[in-house]
Amino acid sequence: HHRELWHERGCHMLSKAHPGQKWVWASLESPSHTKALGGWIGKEWNWVLSYRRDADLFFPYGELVPHSSDVVEIPEKTGLVSWVVSNYHKSQARAAVYLGLSRHLKIDVFGKAARKQLCSDCLLPTISKYRFYLAFENSIHRDYITEKLWRNAFLAGSVPIVLGPSRANYQQFIPGDAFIHVDDFSSAKDLANFLTTMNESHYRSFFAWKRNYAVRLHDDWLERFCSICQKYPHLPPDKVYPDLKRWYWDD
Q1: Do residues 60 and 173 touch, judged by C-beta distance below 8 A?
Q2: At residue 170, does pLDDT exceed 80?
Q3: Phi/psi of residue 2, each to 5°?
Q4: Which residues are the active-site residues?
């Protein structure tokens, strides 16, 4: 795992147990929040475990799995928009969108940044009371769609307003009518008007995916690491990543 290896060894490889040993580089952080990638230039990493769809071992933060249901349950709503955020910086794209949107409608903010912490058992019940949730990523990169969408919005039963990769990229993971993308609107005011004037029938249509799918979270590192053994016979034996930074920043 990149974070531990970088902290403990400063991008120095461990000794191989035998000449044919393979190395898997693992990280679920975005390139913007993965330090010292340049330190791996020239090191022979064989495979990558990542949220990226082109990784040798692809592990998204979540996925929709087939599931049939005749009843679509939507939690009772008492609020309009919520957001849970821990690391807030004015330089982030999500900060600008939030500030613009907050000028036109009320957004209830929770988390460390708002000094309104939610306990782990309170998170989803709190979000579920809101019609919409700001599933804003901390940085924008291809395929980087985190638990902000899968857990905070989908599992809570709130319609996600997403800020991240393109709409087309999101639609490689989820149906196009299951979310609202900030890029679909020319201004924060237009987005606010869309949210505040939406009728109940239109709102319920965002949950149509629940008739055919259920959310499966991938948040267990044991599952991720065990997958290496499971998929080992099918991994390309002679593959090498001579420059992980160049590959990871290739958006």
Answers
A1: yes
A2: yes
A3: -55, -45
A4: 29
